[in-house]
Design a protein that fits this description.
The protein is mostly helical. The protein folds into two domains: 133 residues, no CATH class; 48 residues, no CATH class. It contains eight helices and no strands.
Length: 194
């Protein structure tokens, strides 16, 4: 994708992010941008402003402004799914704003600070949710591998003083094997062997 086309797509994304359209359409566009890897191309496009010696500051400000609109909309609609891309874009945008001194144009410095605060909040919330999920017994790994547990109870099993590891039985919900290290059959064996 050449520079001109990347720039046009960035401007279009910036305009779409500013539009008050249907949420499902905006969400579809945002997810397409995130899933396509276009954020990497935006980073390259905006970084070119640092390399080219005769870059027009208004052009760079327009690119950064569109990028900030896109980043803000990403944080509005899909904060968890866009946290990595927004973090990456924030680093590049901040560098261009500082180097080219374009912070006063189009309220870029204020908007950048707002996006950084929102991005940090999204990352913090994502990490808290991740920790909470890992503490949830449904997501935790059992202390023993069912393949190594004796079929016959040992003395330690009978007089155990610790609270046993119990996983909630899954009834009426599909099994998600991506979350576990065992298959559905392994999950059932694990459930009934602890």
């Amino acid at each position: 994708m050449n520079t001109g086309l990347k720039e046009l797509v960035l401007y279009a994304c910036g305009k779409i992010a500013q539009a008050d359209g249907a949420r499902d359409v905006l969400l579809e566009v945002i997810m397409a941008v995130i899933n396509s890897g276009f954020c990497n191309k935006i980073c390259g496009l905006i970084s070119e402003n640092l390399i080219v010696s005769m870059t027009d500051s208004t052009k760079a400000a327009r690119q950064v402004s569109c990028c900030l609109h896109l980043m803000s909309k990403c944080l509005d609609l899909v904060p968890n799914a866009s946290a990595n891309e927004v973090s990456m874009l924030t680093i590049v945008v901040e560098r261009v704003v500082d180097t080219m001194d374009i912070g006063d144009l189009e309220n870029i410095s204020e908007r950048l600070e707002e996006v950084k605060i929102r991005k940090d909040e999204a990352v913090r919330k994502f990490m808290e949710d991740r920790i909470e999920r890992s503490n949830n017994s449904e997501e935790r790994l059992p202390p023993d591998n069912f393949r190594s547990i004796s079929v016959f109870p040992t003395l330690d099993d009978i007089i155990e003083t610790e609270k046993p590891f119990l996983r909630k039985n899954r009834i009426g919900v599909p099994y998600d094997s991506r979350k576990r290290r065992y298959s559905a059959c392994g999950h059932i064996i694990e459930l009934y062997s602890h």
